[in-house]
Write a structure and sequence with these properties.
Elements lengths: L6 E2 L2 E2 L4 H13 L2 H20 L6 H10 L15 H15 L4 H12 L12 H15 L8 H10 L5 H13 L11 H8 L8 H6 L6
Antiparallel strand pairs: 1-2
Helix pairs in contact: 1-3, 2-3, 2-6, 3-5, 3-6, 4-5, 5-6, 8-9
Length: 215
């Protein structure tokens, strides 16, 4: 793949060894769809951080954005864990191998693990909040008008999204269909309900009522 431009919409990718090696790892181990999506998450998350006047570490936000969907890859289909946790664990391994301080590792792990759990990340550290904000912007269009048309166009020109809505749903389905129980209580159950006619989502109320407790 040709060398990427490293800036768009007045947001620059960190020019550090850690960022460069993370880019190479993710670009070489995941699909083009997930790679472009992950880079857009960084750019959109950064713009949302600017809009919210948040002070954040661009390098940590970049690593969180890059790794956040790595757990959808085929090598994790049999893990039995939520794909978010597989993604977070891969980021943690990468960061520890580069002797990154544990507090920074924790922030990135948390940002990735919680990125499909709405209502919580926004109250945590900026890097945690902004990985989710970038994902919500690129996948769900939440806060779409917070980014100007010109900024959005520049980012999408750098990292295109042809057929993205259907392709990302297919990627979500492929990544979780072998471990349906991991979708209990989170948004990915909607994906399986849409694509798998035989899927029955976990029911929190029935889980309580059917527990071994007598009362």
């Amino acid at each position: 793949m040709a060398e990427e431009r490293e800036a768009a919409a007045d947001v620059a990718v960190p020019r550090t060894r850690l960022a460069r090696e993370a880019t190479e790892l993710v670009r070489d181990t995941t699909s083009e769809l997930i790679y472009h999506h992950s880079r857009r998450v960084y750019f959109f998350g950064s713009l949302q951080g600017r809009n919210r006047d948040l002070s954040f570490d661009p390098e940590l936000l970049y690593i969180g954005a890059l790794f956040h969907d790595l757990g959808l890859d085929e090598r994790f289909h049999g893990s039995g864990r939520r794909f978010e946790v597989d993604s977070a664990d891969e980021a943690r391994r990468f960061l520890r191998s580069h002797d990154v301080p544990e507090d920074s590792v924790r922030r990135v792990w948390t940002a990735i693990a919680l990125h499909t759990t709405p209502g919580i990340p926004e109250h945590m550290e900026p890097e945690v909040a902004l990985v989710t904000a970038g994902v919500e912007y690129d996948v769900l269009g939440i806060g779409y008008g917070d980014v100007s048309d010109a900024e959005r166009a520049e980012i999408v020109a750098l990292h295109p999204r042809p057929g993205f809505k259907h392709r990302i749903l297919e990627a979500f389905h492929a990544g979780i269909r072998s471990k349906p129980d991991t979708t209990f209580g989170n948004v990915k159950a909607d994906v399986l309900q849409h694509f798998d006619p035989g899927f029955r989502r976990g029911d929190f109320v029935r889980t309580i009522l059917d527990s071994p407790w007598q009362e």
